[in-house]
Amino acid sequence: WSWYLLVSLRMAGLSMDFSVLLEPLGFVKVLEWVFAIFAFATCGGFQGETTLLVSCEGVVNKTVTAAFAYPFRLNTAEFSAPDPEGCAGTWTDVHLMGNFSSSAQFFVALAALVFLYCIAALVVYVGYNHVYQQNSKFPLTDLSISALTAFLWLVSTLVWAKALPEIKVSTGASIISEIKSCKAPGTTCHFVSVTRMGILNVSVVFGLLNAALWGGNVWLVYKDTKLHNQWSRISESP
């Protein structure tokens, strides 16, 4: 089908018609393109750090930080050693806990693919709308992709939404109880701060909005298919 559609586009010739963008099908596609960018940026562009205050016997209190970012392989984020000698050599290779890269990468990869597909779809809508309307295979292909994308947006958002609270826990105050170096004699640790993750909450919202948009897009594309036309004729027949 993809080969057939590509050949059809080449033979049809380019005919620009930007009025399609004012129609529901084209306007929704623009929104999907924009929302995919926001979903990608709010999750894929995140950077943060967790800060602790470490007190070692006979040493001035020092802060240590562990920087983390997308794709949230927290087990590779290491706290800097405050003063290994002053802490009697008890502070060694302290990392955050957990690896949430699969959830984050699934979400971001989908956003990137949707971004590219929306560009391709807009090129077809604007430049080859006459072919899209005349060839029944175009709307059917668009319908299949739209339904699959709506499903993937919902799944990836739910998976990412489940991982996000675990990321917050793994970078919050509870990590002190998991750090063996903080339990060494003469050493105490106090949680100072962690980068706010409100932008990651926003990414989940954009994921849900994308799922809703693509769900509505399924209906808009379905109305352009022969399936809808056949059902309309059947329902109108006596």
Automatic annotation (TrEMBL):
It is found in: Membrane. GO terms for cellular component: synaptic vesicle membrane. Keywords: Glycoprotein, Membrane, Transmembrane, Transmembrane helix. The chain crosses the membrane at residues 106-128, 140-161, 199-222. It is a multi-pass membrane protein. Coiled coil: none annotated. It comes from the Eukaryota. Residues 20-226 form the MARVEL domain. Belongs to the synaptophysin/synaptobrevin family. This is SYPL1 protein. It comes from Campylorhamphus procurvoides.
